[in-house]
Amino acid sequence: MSGQLGDDDGGRRSPDPDGLPGFPPEWGRIVIPDDAAELDREATKVRRELRREALLHRHGLRPGRRMQHLMLPLVLLTMAVLVATTSLFAALFPQGRRGGTTPSSKATAVQTGAPLPDLTLAAASGRSVSLRGVHPAVVLVLRHCACGSLISGTAQAAGSHVRVLVVGATTPPTLPALPAGSRVTAVRDSGGQLAEAVAAGQHRTKLADKTATALLVDQHGALTATVATTVDPTDFAERVPALAG
After folding, report:
1. Do 185 and 137 belong together in one domain?
2. What are phi and psi for residue 98, nearest 5 degrees?
3. Which of 65-74, 133-142, 216-225 has the lowest mean pLDDT?
4. Can you give the pLDDT at residue 102?
5. Do 101 and 189 contact (CB within 8 A), yes or no?
6. Average pLDDT of every residue of the chain
7. Residue spans of beta strands (DSSP E) within the chain
8. Alpha-carbon distance 175 to 84, whole Å?
9. Quick one: pLDDT at residue 32?
């Protein structure tokens, strides 16, 4: 059995026969159970809410501000993930050198009796050409020079037994009419590695513009002679056939 408290006298309340005080009208109808154990569920819920409010208050939070309080850690965590991902992609896919000519190792000074620098140059067709893989050969390193007569005269002296590698700075040079059977390839040194190695071999002596340097390489890949500046194939033509051995 339970007791009930309700409105009377138009919303005015007076103590009931048991001596209970009146309650505000907005509380509505109140039912008091005979067994207080029936209120355990409500009491547990109230205690849980009170503990939650106390915990939020202890950390300086209000229920409506919890997400705002968590925003800074979330932003920092997101930025850390983005930085780590960017670093990973940068390590896996490094940016290539401009121009497409990448040396397989740092260029060293050209020296008589030693192999040429271990460089990879690009032909006009896009094919990669290993500098050390071309021998016997005459390597013509051009400096802003069309050098048509130099190229054709070198090809004539080389014949079919000695290769001729014509190296331009940013683009493969345009080849003139060549003798039948000659083996001439135009490549570019867009990274400037071979030009740097040639200059180092000449002890940084300034080499004249509109000329070329001729590197004579024997059948074993060793540099036998360097003609620092030339525009005339007769400067070295008589030594070319001996490169083939």
Report:
1. yes
2. -70, 145
3. 65-74
4. 39
5. yes
6. 78
7. 3-5, 30-32, 120-123, 128-130, 137-143, 163-168, 184-188, 211-217, 223-230
8. 49
9. 66
Instruction: Determine the Cα–Cα distance for residues 178 and 166; give it in Å rounded to an integer.
Output: 13
CA-to-CA separations, 179 to 158, 159, 160, 185, 239, in angstroms, rounded: 10, 8, 10, 13, 19
**pLDDT higher for 218 or 99?**
218
Which token pair is 2?
Answer: 């339970």
Residue 115 domain flag? no
Q: What are the tokens at 117?
A: 């620098």
Tell whether 81 and 130 lie within a shared domain: no
Is 108 inside a domain boundary? Answer: no
Distances (CA, A) of 216 to 51, 52, 58, 136, 241: 90, 87, 84, 8, 10
Residues 54 and 134 grouped into a single domain? no
Same-domain check for residues 70 and 141: no
Looking at residue 240, its pLDDT comes to 94
Q: What angle do CA 231, 237, 241 make, to 5 degrees?
A: 150
- Name the one residue in this structure whose structure tokens are 């135009």: 186
pLDDT digits (tens, 9 = 90+) for 73-103: 677 778 888 888 887 777 776 554 443 333 3
Instruction: Give the number of domains in the chain.
Output: 2
Q: For residue 200, give the amino acid letter.
A: A
CATH code, domain carrying 153? 3.40.30.10
> In terms of domains, do 142 and 236 share one?
yes
What dihedral do alpha carbons 113, 118, 119, 124 form, nearest 10°? 70
